[in-house]
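Problem statement: downstream parser choked on a complex file, so we are re-checking the raw output for the 5'-deoxyadenosine run. The parser issue turned out to be on our end (a line-ending mismatch), but while we're here, posting the original submission so the record is complete.
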Amino acid sequence: MAELEKIETISKKPELSRDDILFLLSLDDPEDIRYLGGLAYAVKKKYVGNKAYLRGLIEFSNICLKDCLYCGIRRSNNSLERFLMSRQEIIDAAEFACKNRYGSVVLQSGERTDGTFTDFVCGIVKDIKSATDGKLGITLSCGEQSKETYRRFFEAGAHRYLLRIEASDRDLYYKLHPPDRHHDFDTRLSCLEWLKEIGFQVGTGVMVGLPFQTISNLANDLMFIKKIDADMIGLGPYIEHSQTPLYEFRQQLMPRQDRLFLTLKMIAVLRIMMKDINIASATALQAIDGFGRERALKFGANIIMPSLTPGKHRKDYLLYEDKPCIEENRDECKDCLEIRIKMAGDETGYEAWGDSLHFINRNHKNQTYV
Ligand code: 5AD
C-alpha cells in the first residue's frame, strides 16, 4: 500500500529516528520507493544542485596486504596478475582527466604500508599537481595507514580520502574480515578520526546486501555515518566473487535486483539525513543494472567515478565479478557518461573540484573553492 504521506512527513523532519530510517529502508512498493527517490532528488537539487561531478578513477595497483573475505583482490587470491602502474602511466591518466575537463581524480589501490609505497604515492600526488598546474583535485583511497603517512599524503597535496567502514557493526565486520592484526575494527575507526584531524574531506561507506547483514545493521550504518559526520559517501551493493571465501554464502543473498533497490533507498535516506554531503554513485550499481548509476543520481547521488584505469589492468582489478566496462577504454567511458548524466536530468560538473559542501559549510564558511 502506498505510504506517500508518511514518507513525506519523515523526509521533512530535522532529525530522523532509528524507526524512521527502518521504515524508509523497508519500503517495498515500487511507487513508494520512487516517491522516496523523488524527495531525495529534490533535497539534492536544493542543497547541492543538480551537477554530477566527475572523479576519474585510477586503480593504480592491486597489490594488497589484506585478505578481506569479500574482495576479489584479496591477498590470497592467486588467480590474478599483480600490478603497479608506472609513474608515467598514472600521470598520463591524470592528464587525460585534465584534458577532458574532469575536475578530480581518485587514486585507488590495494593496501600497502611500506615506505617505498608511501614515497611512491606522495611523489605521484606531487607530480600530478605539477603536471596539471594544480588544476586537478586529488582523492586518495589506499586503505589504512599510520597517522604520519596520512599527514604526508595530505602535505603532498591530496585533500580527500576514501576509507569505507564496510560495516559499522563490530560483529558483522569480523564476519567479513579475518580476525588478525591486518583487520582490526578499532584501527579502522582510528584511521577515520586521524583523516579528519589532519584536515582531509573524509569519505566512508558500506556494502549493501552482504550475507549476515540485516536492515537493522543498515539503519545503524546510516546513523554511524551521521555520527562521524562524514563529508562524502560511497555506498554500493555487495556483489559476490567466486574467488573469495564469502562466495560460499551466496545462497543466503537477496536477489541482485533487491540489492540494487536497497542501495538506492540507502542513498535516498542518507541524502535526506545529510543534505549537503557528496554521495558517489557506485560503479557496482552498474554491474546489476545497466542504468544503475543514473538511477542513483535520481535518488540523490551527485558524484560519478568514470574509470581511467588502462584497459590492460582492468581485468586484474575486479573487486567483484561482472564489473562493467572492463573491455572499454577511457575515451568510450567519457562519451558514454555525459549522455547518461543528461538522461538522469543532471548536468556534468566540468572543471570543478566539486568539493563536499558539508565540509566547506563546517570548516570554511568564507573560503571559496575551485
Ligand atoms: N562487492 C562490492 N563491493 C566491493 N568492494 C570490495 N569488494 C566488493 C564486492 N565483492 C568495495 C569495498 C571497498 C571498495 C573499494 O570496493 O567496499 O571499500
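For whoever reads this later: The mean pLDDT is 95.
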